[in-house]
Amino acid sequence: MSQLLIKPNKEAEDGHVLRVTPESAGWDYVGFEVYSLEAGSTLKKKTNNQEVCLVLLSGKADVQTKEESFKNIGKRMSVFEKIPPYSVYIPNDDYYEVRALSDMKLAVCSAPGKGSYQARLISPEDVGVEDRGHGKMSRKIHNILPEQKEADSLLVVEVYTPDGNTSSYPPHKHDRDNLPRESYLEETYYHELNPPQGFVFQRVYNDTRSLNETISVENENVVLVPEGYHPVSSVPGYESYYLNVMAGPKRTWKFHNDPDHEWLFENVMK
Question: 246: which residues sit within 8 A by CB, 6+ positions away?
Fold first, then answer.
């Protein structure tokens, strides 16, 4: 199995389905976890030196931090309802306590924090929604924590790709600290499929092909993108959802296109 592919632990008794740490990924910035919580259960954790964005993938919850309390948040029961999620931003040196009001699935996105901002609710109305691309390159974007919104390191976005389409495409990368042309950002892709027995293909490759993997990705898998280009192709009959988490030394998203495929940008924006 590819070292870039992380599969869920379906047998986890504490609901801890997935975990990616900088140490396990072999990089410096991005952490990512998924919890599957039963109604009435609680999850409490310190943020330590990390800022955190909690994304309610599905279900409802109360969320408590040092200074804030967000009651009865959450609306969608499946990511494939395609409505923006409720999320909570929490700074470093804080904590969060999540009490599940229904069965729920929770994503925990983390990266180094500087204590610049206070905890806040990111409601569906705060999420920028856009359609990107055209034809077989079209997809829907939910900008949960984009560059224009306050955070120290984290960038968080959801993407919906119709069956048979390709997204994160034309191929692009962001693996060099070479601003203003390109920024260095590590990235995780958390995938869900509809229906859930489906799969997508994700290719991760660099210019020299010293990294060149094409991965068959199933429901609730995570793909690590430490470098290189990283398009995702959905197969007929199965629509694709993924949650991206990015972070690096500078909080800006400047990407570089694969020159072999840049002609595609004549009609489509990344």
Answer: 30, 154, 155, 156, 174, 185, 186, 187, 253
Asked whether the beta carbons of 47 and 93 are under 8 A apart, the reply is yes
Sequence-distant (≥ 6) Cβ neighbours of residue 100 within 8 angstroms: 37, 38, 39, 40, 41, 42, 43, 59, 60, 61
Residue 247, beta-bridge partner list: 186
CA distance 235 to 248: 31
Sheet holding 87-90, edge to edge: 16-20, 31-37, 104-112, 50-58, 87-90, 120-122
Burial class (CB in 10 A: 0-12, 13-18, 19+), 62: middle
| One-letter amino acid of 121 | L
Could you please report the per-residue DSSP string of 213-249? EEEEEETT-EEEESSSB--EEEPTT-EEEEEEEEE-S
| Per-residue pLDDT tens over the stretch 2-59 | 899 999 997 777 789 999 999 999 999 999 999 999 999 999 999 999 999 999 999 9
* SS3 (DSSP) at 79: helix
Which among 105, 109, 91, 98 has a CA at the least distance from the CA of 33?
A: 109
